[in-house]
Specification:
Layout lengths: L5 E5 H22 L5 E5 L1 H5 L3 H7 L5 E4 L2 H9 L6 E3 L8 H8 L2 E4 L2 H9 L6 E6 L11 H16 L3 E7 L9 H14 L7 E2 L3 H4 L15 E2 L25 E13 L4 E2 L5 E2 L4 E6 L16 E4 L2 E6 L7 E4 L11 E5 L6 H7 L4 H6 L7 E4 L17
Parallel strand pairs: 1-18, 2-3, 2-9, 3-4, 4-5, 5-6, 6-7, 7-8
Antiparallel strand pairs: 1-10, 10-13, 10-17, 11-12, 13-16, 14-15, 14-17, 15-16
Helix pairs in contact: 1-3, 4-5, 6-7
The structure holds pyridoxal-5'-phosphate.
Amino acid sequence: MPRPIMATISVPAMQHNLQHVASSLQAHARMAGRAAPRIWAVIKARAYGHGLAQGLAGFGAADGLAMLDLDEAVACREAGWRGPLMLLEGFFDSSDIDIVDTHGLTVSVHGEEQLHMLEQAAPARPIGVNLKINGGMNRLGFAPGEAADAWRRLAALRRKGVVGELGTMMHFSRADDDPAATRAQLGAFLSLIAGMPGPVSVCNSAATLTAGLWANLPGDRPQWVRPGICLYGSSPFADRSAAQLGLRPAMTLESRIIGVQDCRPGASVGYGHLFTAEAPTRVGIVACGYADGYPRHAGTGTPVTVAGRATRLLGRVSMDMLAVDLTAVESAGVGSPVVLWGAGGPSVDEVAHAAGTVGYELLCALAARVPRRILPARSSASGISSDAGDAQ
Ligand SMILES: *Cc1c(COP(=O)(O)O)cnc(C)c1O
């Protein structure tokens, strides 16, 4: 028998989350009397650790898919995806432009070097471009003072047939925790793009889920939101859980108890003896450690579910094992099922919080050695339904 650890990837949960986000966008669009934004489902980092094939199966109803790696985009084309594909960081080298051209990819152009490469290029077909403007994140993007000139150069390339559809994009730095800062970034962006027609894309998950934020953008332009993390059933907000947002976990990490120790008061557990029993404590040893992607910084008290009962981690996480408190889970013993995160256990966000990080990092860091079981797509899902009733 293989080591009893397993990650279950639920494609139906991914389908649900996309439908749920789409339904709430549609509901807000109806209230605002305008068209709902189109959705780039973000599948970078191998669909946030869920696997590219699962991203394609789960988000087949999205308007487009967005990623970073050219090989991920090419793999989507090879898997039969005919719709739009966007490279969120654009291309890295002039030779990448051939791949962009061959596969009909849309690119972000965020800096002078990329713009220069595009000015030297002679693609067979016009390339869809989103001019990325630095809206205060100070990561990628043209500075506000450089944006108008970059737009003029891209518009010239459009007239030459090098650039096809031309739009603008920006990334919020505090959409998850500071609505005032986000409104200020949006306001500055809106005045910058006044002379730049074409599609607009500004919203990650946090901004997409901030009711109607996108409705502040000009109604006469197509809009694309770019949700990632929420589609995998993890919350972008520290103060709202994924369950409260109506999202379902796409990844469940499970294992089993492989050993039990009865510790007397004063006995300590694991490396560094970080946990010392104050009362008689039954300690279960779980086949899961940081080499599986479980965070080593999760300490005593981190939530975990054993045999359907919520309990806690004890002491330091080892490479291949961790310890849990079975004192109150009398029925548990060797072989008992353990949910580290996901359906039937704590949320990935709760575990991440206990380890001082975010759900994104845990999902993306699931180790290659963990076997995956895939729950296949619901067959009826051929597109996003416009029934907002599914939004619950
Ligand atoms: C990753 C990413 C997103 C998605 O962000 P989430 O917080 O996962 O929704 C959107 N836009 C860009 C440019 C990104 O890099």
